[in-house]
Amino acid sequence: MSTAERPVSRPLSPHLQVYRPQLTSMLSITHRAAGIALAVGLVWLVVWVCAAASDADTYAAVAWFNTSVLGRIFLFGWTACLFYHLFNGIRHLFWDAGYGLELKDAYASGRAVLVATAVCTIGSWLIASLVR
C-alpha cells in the first residue's frame, strides 16, 4: 500500500457565470463559432456543386432550399460568418505583428470588425439582389 498523502486542496477556478462577458472574450468565442459555421457551410457548398454536376431534379431540390426562407437565413448567416472570420483574422494578424494590443485598441478594432462585417454582409446581399 502507498502511504501517499492526500493532495493539497486548492480552490477551484470561478465558474464562467461569475465573469461579466467582455467584448474581447465574446469576439474570441464568436471567431471560433464562425470557423465551425464556415466548415458546415462548406459542406453545403459541396452539396450544391455536386447537385449542379448531377441531374436537373437534384439541382432543383438544392436550389429550392437555397431560395426558401430557411435557406436564405442559412446563407445570410454563412455570409456573415465568412466576413466576420475574415476581418477578425486580419485583426489577429495585426496583433501577431504587435499592433493594437492596448486594451482601448483591442476594443476599437473589435468594434471595427463588427461594423465591417455588418456593412459587407448587408452590402453583398444588396448587390446580389440587384444583380438578379
UniProtKB/TrEMBL annotation:
<dbReference type="GO" id="GO:0016020">
    <property type="term" value="C:membrane"/>
</dbReference>
<dbReference type="InterPro" id="IPR014314">
    <property type="entry name" value="Succ_DH_cytb556"/>
</dbReference>
<dbReference type="GO" id="GO:0046872">
    <property type="term" value="F:metal ion binding"/>
</dbReference>
<dbReference type="GO" id="GO:0009055">
    <property type="term" value="F:electron transfer activity"/>
</dbReference>
<feature type="transmembrane region" description="Helical">
    <location>
        <begin position="107"/>
        <end position="131"/>
    </location>
</feature>
<keyword id="KW-1133">Transmembrane helix</keyword>
<keyword id="KW-0812">Transmembrane</keyword>
<comment type="function">
    <text>Membrane-anchoring subunit of succinate dehydrogenase (SDH).</text>
</comment>
<dbReference type="Pfam" id="PF01127">
    <property type="entry name" value="Sdh_cyt"/>
</dbReference>
<keyword id="KW-0349">Heme</keyword>
<dbReference type="GO" id="GO:0006099">
    <property type="term" value="P:tricarboxylic acid cycle"/>
</dbReference>
<dbReference type="InterPro" id="IPR034804">
    <property type="entry name" value="SQR/QFR_C/D"/>
</dbReference>
<dbReference type="InterPro" id="IPR018495">
    <property type="entry name" value="Succ_DH_cyt_bsu_CS"/>
</dbReference>
<feature type="transmembrane region" description="Helical">
    <location>
        <begin position="29"/>
        <end position="51"/>
    </location>
</feature>
<keyword id="KW-0408">Iron</keyword>
<dbReference type="InterPro" id="IPR000701">
    <property type="entry name" value="SuccDH_FuR_B_TM-su"/>
</dbReference>
<feature type="binding site" description="axial binding residue">
    <location>
        <position position="85"/>
    </location>
    <ligand>
        <name>heme</name>
    </ligand>
</feature>
<keyword id="KW-0479">Metal-binding</keyword>
<comment type="similarity">
    <text>Belongs to the cytochrome b560 family.</text>
</comment>
<feature type="transmembrane region" description="Helical">
    <location>
        <begin position="63"/>
        <end position="87"/>
    </location>
</feature>
<protein>
    <recommendedName>
        <fullName>Succinate dehydrogenase cytochrome b556 subunit</fullName>
    </recommendedName>
</protein>
<comment type="subunit">
    <text>Part of an enzyme complex containing four subunits: a flavoprotein, an iron-sulfur protein, plus two membrane-anchoring proteins, SdhC and SdhD. The complex can form homotrimers.</text>
</comment>
<keyword id="KW-0472">Membrane</keyword>
